[in-house]
């Protein structure tokens, strides 16, 4: 599951420098919700890597209209190749979503307690994604979905699923237009790209209208999640 994202200049600059060789010049946005636009990394027709803005809620090119009728902001790794909406983007239009971190919620009684998940070294995270381009009503809309998979055992205390998180090198393999299916499948298993920190934060972040650094401010002890050996 991935339903809320944090992007701010420190981690994003490191990701942009590593992947594109340029700095991040966008705004800090500490509480991004589905249907908002985010930067993604994708290949151009010429094979170069570019950054583009895309709407976080995939609209297939064949859709009659832009809609939120179906939950299309996440795409399950297990059904990517079979889903009518996702199979062509999975085959031809894969992307990376650079983020500072993301939020997950644990329900305790009637309260949903939020946690902020980030790289231990604050160097940002690359999430696997797929994108598509819709045209209609004199508009062109690029949109994407974050690919999710079964959660790694060390993150089970937060949720039963997680976004597919990739290292820089794994991200380049994900974007490779000639990547074989077995390679892509191996990238989508439950794994951690590095050491993570899980931060309990206040319910202030529960409202997507709330912004600012308060969204990721700790309200309790941070939890270290070491990558350890692959599973």
Tell me about this structure.
The chain has four helices and 14 strands. It has 231 residues and is mostly beta strands. It has a single domain (5-225), classed as hypothetical protein yedk fold (Alpha-Beta Complex), CATH 3.90.1680. The strands form two sheets. Strands 3, 4, 5, 6, 9, 10, 11 and 12 form an eight-stranded mixed beta sheet that branches. A six-stranded antiparallel beta sheet has the order 2-1-7-8-13-14.
Describe the SSE topology.
Elements: E1 5-7, H1 9-20, E2 29-32, E3 37-43, E4 49-56, E5 74-76, H2 87-92, E6 94-99, E7 101-108, E8 111-119, E9 125-136, E10 139-150, E11 161-163, E12 165-166, H3 168-175, H4 181-187, E13 196-200, E14 223-225
Parallel strand pairs: 4-10, 5-10
Antiparallel strand pairs: 1-2, 1-7, 3-4, 6-9, 7-8, 8-13, 9-10, 9-12, 10-11, 13-14
Instruction: Give the CA-CA distance, first to last residue.
Output: 20 Å
Mean pLDDT, all residues? 94
How many DSSP H or I helices?
4
* CATH class category label: Alpha Beta
**Radius of gyration, rounded?**
17 Å
How many structural domains? Answer: 1
Largest sheet composition: 8 strands, mixed
Q: In the CATH hierarchy, what is the superfamily? A: SOS response associated peptidase-like
Per DSSP E runs of 2 or more residues, the count of β-strands stands at: 14
Counting copies of identical and different chains, the oligomeric state is single chain
Q: Overall 3D geometry?
A: globular
